[in-house]
Prior knowledge:
With 302 residues, the chain is α/β, with parallel strands linked by helices.
Amino acid sequence: xxxxxxxxxxxxGVAGGVGLTALMVAAARAIETHRHDSLARDxxxxxxxxxxxASAGWPVRPRQVEDGDANPLWGRFxxxxxxxxxxxxxxxxxxxxxxxxxxxxxxxAGLDSRAFRxxxxxxxxxxxxxxxxxxxxxxxxxxxxxxxxxxxxxxVPIDLRADWAGALTGAGFDPAAPTVWLAEGLLFYLPxxxxxxxxxxxxxxxxxxxxxxxxxxxxxxxxxxxxxPLYTAxxxxxxxxxxxxxxxxxxxxxxxDLGSKGWSTSVHTPFDFTHRHGCGPLPExxxxxxxxxxxxxxxxxx
Length: 302
Protein backbone atom coordinates (compact mmCIF):
# COMPACT_ATOMS: atom_id res chain seq x y z
CA UNK A 1 0.00 0.00 0.00
CA UNK A 2 2.92 2.33 -0.53
CA UNK A 3 2.81 2.81 -4.27
CA UNK A 4 0.58 5.86 -4.46
CA UNK A 5 1.67 8.28 -7.17
CA UNK A 6 2.06 12.00 -6.54
CA UNK A 7 -1.06 13.96 -7.48
CA UNK A 8 -1.30 17.56 -8.57
CA UNK A 9 -5.08 17.96 -8.69
CA UNK A 10 -6.10 19.72 -5.51
CA UNK A 11 -2.70 19.14 -3.90
CA UNK A 12 -2.20 22.89 -3.49
CA GLY A 13 -5.03 22.80 -0.94
CA VAL A 14 -2.94 20.67 1.41
CA ALA A 15 0.47 22.06 0.48
CA GLY A 16 0.71 24.79 3.09
CA GLY A 17 -0.77 26.44 6.14
CA VAL A 18 -3.66 24.73 7.84
CA GLY A 19 -4.04 22.37 4.86
CA LEU A 20 -0.60 20.94 5.59
CA THR A 21 -1.74 20.01 9.11
CA ALA A 22 -4.29 17.67 7.50
CA LEU A 23 -1.38 15.73 6.03
CA MET A 24 0.35 15.69 9.42
CA VAL A 25 -2.74 14.15 11.01
CA ALA A 26 -2.99 11.66 8.12
CA ALA A 27 0.61 10.59 8.72
CA ALA A 28 -0.14 10.16 12.41
CA ARG A 29 -3.18 8.03 11.59
CA ALA A 30 -1.10 5.93 9.20
CA ILE A 31 1.50 5.31 11.91
CA GLU A 32 -1.26 4.49 14.41
CA THR A 33 -2.79 2.02 11.97
CA HIS A 34 0.41 -0.02 11.93
CA ARG A 35 1.10 0.00 15.68
CA HIS A 36 0.85 -3.34 17.46
CA ASP A 37 -1.52 -1.72 19.98
CA SER A 38 -3.40 0.44 17.49
CA LEU A 39 -6.34 2.45 18.80
CA ALA A 40 -7.69 3.31 15.33
CA ARG A 41 -7.16 2.02 11.82
CA ASP A 42 -7.24 4.20 8.73
CA UNK A 43 -5.93 2.30 5.71
CA UNK A 44 -6.38 5.36 3.48
CA UNK A 45 -4.27 7.74 5.54
CA UNK A 46 -0.85 6.74 4.18
CA UNK A 47 -2.07 7.19 0.61
CA UNK A 48 -2.89 10.84 1.27
CA UNK A 49 0.58 11.38 2.72
CA UNK A 50 2.40 9.66 -0.14
CA UNK A 51 0.32 11.34 -2.84
CA UNK A 52 1.11 14.93 -1.81
CA UNK A 53 4.55 16.22 -2.78
CA ALA A 54 4.73 18.25 0.45
CA SER A 55 4.58 15.11 2.61
CA ALA A 56 5.83 12.30 0.39
CA GLY A 57 8.95 11.78 2.52
CA TRP A 58 7.18 11.66 5.87
CA PRO A 59 6.93 8.41 7.86
CA VAL A 60 3.75 6.35 7.57
CA ARG A 61 4.90 3.29 9.57
CA PRO A 62 6.32 3.10 13.11
CA ARG A 63 9.52 1.48 11.83
CA GLN A 64 10.18 4.55 9.67
CA VAL A 65 10.46 6.77 12.75
CA GLU A 66 14.14 6.50 13.66
CA ASP A 67 13.75 7.27 17.37
CA GLY A 68 10.28 5.72 17.71
CA ASP A 69 8.03 6.94 20.47
CA ALA A 70 10.84 9.15 21.78
CA ASN A 71 10.23 11.38 18.74
CA PRO A 72 7.98 14.21 20.03
CA LEU A 73 6.20 14.58 16.67
CA TRP A 74 5.88 11.07 15.26
CA GLY A 75 5.84 9.44 18.69
CA ARG A 76 3.89 11.34 21.34
CA PHE A 77 2.02 13.80 19.07
CA UNK A 78 1.12 11.08 16.59
CA UNK A 79 -0.19 8.94 19.45
CA UNK A 80 -2.33 11.90 20.50
CA UNK A 81 -3.93 12.02 17.04
CA UNK A 82 -4.45 8.26 17.14
CA UNK A 83 -6.24 8.55 20.48
CA UNK A 84 -8.32 11.48 19.24
CA UNK A 85 -9.32 9.51 16.16
CA UNK A 86 -10.48 6.56 18.27
CA UNK A 87 -12.44 8.69 20.74
CA UNK A 88 -14.24 10.61 18.01
CA UNK A 89 -14.88 7.44 16.00
CA UNK A 90 -16.59 6.00 19.06
CA UNK A 91 -18.58 9.19 19.60
CA UNK A 92 -19.88 9.27 16.02
CA UNK A 93 -20.81 5.60 15.94
CA UNK A 94 -22.52 5.82 19.32
CA UNK A 95 -24.48 8.87 18.14
CA UNK A 96 -25.84 7.09 15.08
CA UNK A 97 -26.29 3.58 16.52
CA UNK A 98 -27.65 4.51 19.94
CA UNK A 99 -28.59 8.17 19.61
CA UNK A 100 -30.40 7.76 16.30
CA UNK A 101 -28.65 10.57 14.41
CA UNK A 102 -29.56 10.37 10.73
CA UNK A 103 -26.95 12.78 9.42
CA UNK A 104 -23.25 13.30 10.10
CA UNK A 105 -21.60 16.65 9.36
CA UNK A 106 -17.80 16.85 9.32
CA UNK A 107 -16.86 20.52 9.68
CA UNK A 108 -13.48 21.18 8.12
CA ALA A 109 -13.40 17.54 7.03
CA GLY A 110 -9.84 17.65 5.73
CA LEU A 111 -8.59 14.15 4.94
CA ASP A 112 -11.13 12.44 7.18
CA SER A 113 -12.02 9.05 5.67
CA ARG A 114 -14.72 8.06 8.17
CA ALA A 115 -17.33 7.79 5.42
CA PHE A 116 -15.21 4.97 3.97
CA ARG A 117 -13.78 3.19 6.98
CA UNK A 118 -16.53 3.15 9.64
CA UNK A 119 -19.54 0.85 9.64
CA UNK A 120 -22.58 3.10 9.34
CA UNK A 121 -26.19 2.00 9.78
CA UNK A 122 -28.37 1.98 6.69
CA UNK A 123 -29.83 5.32 5.66
CA UNK A 124 -27.20 7.63 7.11
CA UNK A 125 -25.77 10.57 5.16
CA UNK A 126 -22.25 11.94 5.69
CA UNK A 127 -21.71 15.60 4.76
CA UNK A 128 -18.10 16.75 4.39
CA UNK A 129 -17.46 20.50 4.44
CA UNK A 130 -14.08 21.86 3.41
CA UNK A 131 -12.36 23.96 0.79
CA UNK A 132 -12.74 22.77 -2.79
CA UNK A 133 -9.01 22.09 -3.27
CA UNK A 134 -8.82 19.82 -0.22
CA UNK A 135 -11.88 17.83 -1.26
CA UNK A 136 -10.52 17.55 -4.81
CA UNK A 137 -7.25 16.08 -3.53
CA UNK A 138 -9.12 13.61 -1.35
CA UNK A 139 -11.36 12.64 -4.29
CA UNK A 140 -8.33 11.96 -6.49
CA UNK A 141 -6.61 9.76 -3.92
CA UNK A 142 -9.69 7.77 -2.92
CA UNK A 143 -10.78 7.44 -6.54
CA UNK A 144 -7.39 5.99 -7.41
CA UNK A 145 -7.94 3.36 -4.73
CA UNK A 146 -11.49 2.59 -5.96
CA UNK A 147 -12.63 3.31 -2.40
CA UNK A 148 -16.37 3.00 -1.78
CA UNK A 149 -18.12 4.92 1.02
CA UNK A 150 -20.15 2.89 3.51
CA UNK A 151 -22.89 5.51 3.66
CA UNK A 152 -24.28 8.18 1.37
CA UNK A 153 -21.55 10.83 1.11
CA UNK A 154 -22.08 14.44 0.11
CA UNK A 155 -19.17 16.87 -0.24
CA VAL A 156 -19.81 20.56 0.36
CA PRO A 157 -16.91 22.57 -1.11
CA ILE A 158 -16.92 25.86 0.77
CA ASP A 159 -14.73 27.81 3.17
CA LEU A 160 -16.11 27.85 6.70
CA ARG A 161 -15.70 31.63 6.70
CA ALA A 162 -18.38 31.80 3.97
CA ASP A 163 -22.09 30.85 4.11
CA TRP A 164 -21.47 27.19 4.76
CA ALA A 165 -24.89 26.76 6.37
CA GLY A 166 -26.60 27.78 3.15
CA ALA A 167 -24.34 25.51 1.13
CA LEU A 168 -25.04 22.62 3.49
CA THR A 169 -28.81 22.94 3.29
CA GLY A 170 -28.51 23.43 -0.45
CA ALA A 171 -26.67 20.09 -0.62
CA GLY A 172 -29.63 18.27 0.94
CA PHE A 173 -29.03 18.62 4.69
CA ASP A 174 -32.29 18.35 6.64
CA PRO A 175 -32.43 20.58 9.77
CA ALA A 176 -35.43 18.58 11.01
CA ALA A 177 -33.42 15.34 11.28
CA PRO A 178 -31.16 14.56 14.26
CA THR A 179 -27.54 15.23 13.33
CA VAL A 180 -24.13 14.47 14.80
CA TRP A 181 -21.59 17.23 14.16
CA LEU A 182 -17.81 16.98 14.37
CA ALA A 183 -15.24 19.79 14.47
CA GLU A 184 -11.98 17.88 14.84
CA GLY A 185 -8.79 19.93 15.01
CA LEU A 186 -10.58 22.99 13.65
CA LEU A 187 -11.65 25.65 16.10
CA PHE A 188 -8.23 26.76 17.32
CA TYR A 189 -7.40 27.94 13.80
CA LEU A 190 -10.49 30.16 13.68
CA PRO A 191 -11.01 33.60 15.23
CA UNK A 192 -13.26 33.61 18.28
CA UNK A 193 -16.04 35.29 16.34
CA UNK A 194 -15.95 32.50 13.75
CA UNK A 195 -16.13 29.88 16.50
CA UNK A 196 -19.14 31.63 18.04
CA UNK A 197 -20.85 31.80 14.65
CA UNK A 198 -20.14 28.12 14.01
CA UNK A 199 -21.52 27.02 17.38
CA UNK A 200 -24.59 29.25 16.98
CA UNK A 201 -25.19 27.84 13.50
CA UNK A 202 -24.86 24.25 14.68
CA UNK A 203 -27.42 25.00 17.39
CA UNK A 204 -29.79 26.61 14.89
CA UNK A 205 -29.55 23.71 12.43
CA UNK A 206 -29.80 20.95 15.06
CA UNK A 207 -33.02 19.11 15.73
CA UNK A 208 -33.61 17.57 19.14
CA UNK A 209 -31.51 14.45 19.57
CA UNK A 210 -28.50 15.97 17.81
CA UNK A 211 -24.95 15.80 19.16
CA UNK A 212 -21.69 17.71 18.71
CA UNK A 213 -18.02 17.04 19.46
CA UNK A 214 -15.22 19.56 19.09
CA UNK A 215 -11.73 20.33 20.31
CA UNK A 216 -10.49 23.56 21.88
CA UNK A 217 -7.39 24.91 23.59
CA UNK A 218 -7.82 26.75 26.87
CA UNK A 219 -4.38 28.32 27.37
CA UNK A 220 -4.49 31.98 28.32
CA UNK A 221 -1.28 32.49 26.33
CA UNK A 222 -0.26 29.98 23.68
CA UNK A 223 3.25 31.42 23.56
CA UNK A 224 3.89 30.08 27.05
CA UNK A 225 4.43 26.73 25.28
CA UNK A 226 6.48 27.96 22.33
CA UNK A 227 9.48 25.89 23.46
CA UNK A 228 7.51 22.71 24.11
CA PRO A 229 8.87 19.58 22.41
CA LEU A 230 5.67 19.07 20.38
CA TYR A 231 5.73 22.51 18.80
CA THR A 232 9.49 22.68 18.23
CA ALA A 233 9.65 19.17 16.73
CA UNK A 234 6.72 19.89 14.41
CA UNK A 235 8.36 23.09 13.21
CA UNK A 236 11.86 21.65 12.76
CA UNK A 237 10.94 18.25 11.30
CA UNK A 238 8.18 19.15 8.84
CA UNK A 239 8.14 22.95 8.78
CA UNK A 240 4.73 23.49 10.38
CA UNK A 241 4.72 26.34 12.90
CA UNK A 242 1.49 25.55 14.72
CA UNK A 243 1.70 28.59 16.97
CA UNK A 244 1.75 30.76 13.87
CA UNK A 245 -1.39 29.03 12.57
CA UNK A 246 -3.41 29.04 15.79
CA UNK A 247 -5.57 32.06 16.52
CA UNK A 248 -4.00 33.68 19.56
CA UNK A 249 -7.04 35.56 20.84
CA UNK A 250 -8.92 34.42 23.96
CA UNK A 251 -11.39 31.67 23.15
CA UNK A 252 -15.14 32.01 23.72
CA UNK A 253 -16.84 29.75 26.26
CA UNK A 254 -18.65 27.66 23.66
CA UNK A 255 -19.46 24.87 26.11
CA UNK A 256 -21.10 27.39 28.43
CA ASP A 257 -22.95 28.94 25.49
CA LEU A 258 -24.33 25.55 24.45
CA GLY A 259 -25.35 24.89 28.04
CA SER A 260 -27.29 28.16 28.13
CA LYS A 261 -29.09 27.01 24.98
CA GLY A 262 -30.22 23.80 26.66
CA TRP A 263 -27.52 21.38 25.51
CA SER A 264 -25.89 19.04 28.01
CA THR A 265 -22.11 19.24 27.77
CA SER A 266 -19.09 17.40 29.13
CA VAL A 267 -15.48 18.59 28.90
CA HIS A 268 -12.53 16.19 29.04
CA THR A 269 -8.77 16.29 28.78
CA PRO A 270 -7.16 13.89 26.31
CA PHE A 271 -5.43 12.27 29.27
CA ASP A 272 -8.84 11.13 30.57
CA PHE A 273 -9.04 8.87 27.53
CA THR A 274 -5.41 7.78 27.78
CA HIS A 275 -6.34 6.27 31.14
CA ARG A 276 -9.53 4.78 29.73
CA HIS A 277 -7.86 3.06 26.77
CA GLY A 278 -4.57 2.21 28.44
CA CYS A 279 -2.38 3.99 25.89
CA GLY A 280 -1.87 7.50 24.61
CA PRO A 281 -0.09 10.63 25.84
CA LEU A 282 0.29 11.42 29.54
CA PRO A 283 1.04 14.86 31.02
CA GLU A 284 4.63 16.04 30.95
CA UNK A 285 6.45 19.31 31.79
CA UNK A 286 6.02 22.24 29.38
CA UNK A 287 3.20 20.30 27.75
CA UNK A 288 1.59 21.75 24.62
CA UNK A 289 -1.36 19.41 25.22
CA UNK A 290 -2.08 20.78 28.69
CA UNK A 291 -4.82 23.14 27.51
CA UNK A 292 -6.46 20.80 25.01
CA UNK A 293 -10.05 19.89 25.77
CA UNK A 294 -12.47 17.58 24.00
CA UNK A 295 -16.07 18.75 24.37
CA UNK A 296 -19.15 16.59 23.83
CA UNK A 297 -22.63 18.07 23.71
CA UNK A 298 -26.16 16.70 23.28
CA UNK A 299 -29.31 18.60 22.40
CA UNK A 300 -32.31 17.08 24.19
CA UNK A 301 -35.29 15.82 22.28
CA UNK A 302 -38.38 17.94 22.72
